[in-house]
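Field: COMPLEX_INPUT
Field: COMPONENT_COUNT = two
Field: RESIDUE_TOTAL = 413
Field: MODE = joint
Values follow.
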Amino acid sequence: MVLGAVVIAAAVGGLMFAAQRSREGALTHQQGMRLVLWAGGVVPTVVLLTLLIATLPAMRPIAVKPDDLRVTVTGEQFWWRVRYQPAGQAAIDDSNELRVPVGRNVELLLEAGDVLHSFWVPGLAGKLDMVPGRTNKLVVHATRAGRFRGQCAEFCGLSHALMAFDVVAMEPAAFDAWLAARRTPAPVGGDGARLFAANGCGGCHTVAGVSEAAIGPNLTHLGSRASLGAGMQRRTHANLVRFIKQAPTVKPGARMPAYPQLTNEDAATIARWLEQSK
Amino acid sequence: MKNETPHGPERRGVRHRLRQLRVTLWTLIVPPSVWAVHFLFCYLWVAVSCAKLGAFPRFTVAFVIGTLVAEAIILASGWIAWVQTRTPGDPAPHDQGTDIDRLRFLAVSTLLLAGLSFVAVIFTAVPALMLTDCR
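Field: COMPLEX_OUTPUT
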């Protein structure tokens, strides 16, 4: 493609140079008109039509089979609800991170919980709107392992720009092992769990084995994610403590309230407990 | 001129009649209008196929015939314009405010629009035929 662009640019440049240099009357009127017709009309049309026909098959959607992995991704203000639905197995819930196996087709069922969002992972596929009440389907096929950044691409409120997520493409065997590991609940108990319950965190967040609520992101595997607050910042201890205490400041418009009454030590205890759950 | 050699009395008659047509803007917009109608036709075809039948493409033969009809109208319009541009008479440049120069000018414009519309109809039809999915 680059080569073709270079050749065309060189040809046009050469033509311009020759036109500048040639003396007046080098071409008759008829020859000039013929040059315009062929170089300006016929050749570009044929080249573009050839490119169109050659590339259109690549734009056809990938076909999915019934036993391919399906993942429902729901856009929420301002985070992502992720539900893995492997064929014939129970669904696994997660948030703000999407993992896909390399070399396999994955069908994403895109929904919206509140307002319009748009699912966009430039490294993986084109963007597709998430519309409340509808399920849009996008089939992705990762060709290499790696981490890709996703971003909400439809304005959805104050923290729209902070509504991102990570996509991790894993080798198929590693992905299967990872998905199986997701079925085992996170460690339960300790001061962190007690504080988590005492401060009502479980009223919105699910941590497997501790609480079941679906208002905010599922925090069961927070300790394995690279980012925090839907891809908005790196997951460091300090950032997590700050998010727990001052969510509305860190993420304007988010539904999570601030917890100024929480001591720094208690917030740190909850943070450490969440970081352990991988 | 070489191109003005009549091919027969009948053919000369058709060309002669074409050159006697009144100068009007209506013939100018025939090719782009056909392009627009064909474009609408493509959208309707895909929308109706997907919404009513749940699959696409259906009635491919009808679509191809519709496209060929559109191209035929554009070609005919282009041919008429081409004949009109070659109306014999005074030598170039044809930039006078006379009926015959106005006809030549509109004919050249129509010819260019016909060329554009012809290509555009192909570029609209090819993706409609090759992208076979409702998503």
